[in-house]
Amino acid sequence: MVKTRSYEVELPHSWDSLQVILSEPEKTLPFFPYFENLHNDTVRFRVPRFIFDFGYEFTLALGFRKNAAVYTFTGEKGVLTVTFEMHGKKLRVTASWSGFGELLMGKPLENFARGIAEAIRDFCSAQATCPALELESDEGVVHHVTPESAPALIKRIVWELRGDDFILEGVSNRGVRISATVRGGRLVRLTVKDPLNKETVIEADLPVLEIGPELFEDLPLDDTFRIKVRRI
Fold first, then answer.
1. In whole angstroms, what is the distance from residue 178 CA to residue 204 CA?
2. CA distance 85 to 90
3. Is 92 exposed, middle or buried (0-12, 13-18, 19+ CB in 10 A)?
4. Which of 8, 20, 136, 222 lies at a C-alpha separation of 20 to 30 Å from 195?
5. What would the pLDDT profile of 159-171 be if each residue is shown by its tens digit?
6. Domains of the chain by range and CATH?
7. CA dist., res. 14 & res. 9, Å (int)
8. Cβ atoms within 10 A of the Cβ of 140, count?
9. d(CA 61, CA 75)
10. What separation in angstroms does the CA of 159 have from each of 123, 145, 176, 193, 201?
11. What are the two backbone dihedrals, phi and then psi, of residue 109, each rounded to the nearest 5 degrees?
12. Strand order in the sheet with 3-10
């Protein structure tokens, strides 16, 4: 018997924008619940504090059809299937497990489907609202950074870096300096210094996918920034 759970989120973006995100699983998988690591096409998940160890390796296969995509994870203990389907302006994520311990997999699959749906929604929104970004290697120019678009910029970079830790540093045309530190998929520090050297420091411990514009309110960000991204 296959154990299956689904979760839906509003997604006011096109299938094409969703396909961009899903077609690069090496960037998206680090934000799936229970993700542990990825090497080539082999991915490892682990469910903590569960009645049995779900820490098995899977080989990933990716497939697309009209308005839908399927990630199939095949391992020694079973097959984990994640299906993404667009219905109008809604994304439906279905996670199915066929293999050892099916009767015990209900709650983990619920968490899995919900977490994946929310992560994909946030990355699609970030791609759609990210300010124009010209990034070559680890340096580039970001046009018109605002409190509203700054969260999308950080999400876009964390996705491009596949969840690696990094420090984003930038200076605007008007001399505003910004620094954002991301560790373990969480924004831990944000520093902004205006041209008069007035400094604002925000110590945080906020998941990147939960960053909103309220964090950047009243900061002097309405400008073009030259940025540098440094892995740490």
1. 15
2. 8
3. middle
4. 136
5. 989 889 999 999 9
6. 3-129 (3.30.530.20), 133-231 (no CATH)
7. 14
8. 15
9. 12
10. 8, 18, 25, 26, 24
11. -70, -35
12. 3-10, 90-99, 78-87, 68-75, 57-65, 42-45, 35-39
* pLDDT-flagged residues of the chain (< 70): 1, 48-55, 101-103
Residue 62 forms beta bridges with which residues? 71
Closest CA to 224 of 151, 127, 156, 149: 149
Instruction: Give residues with Cβ within 8 angstroms of 2, minimum separation 6.
Output: 96, 97, 98, 102
pTM of the model as a whole: 0.83
Query: Pairing relation of β-strands 177-183 and 186-193?
Result: antiparallel
- Block residue for tokens 């969840």: 163
Structure tokens at 155: 């999400």
| Cα distance between residue 183 and residue 122, in whole Å | 18
Half-sphere exposure of 19 (CA within 13 A, CB side): 9
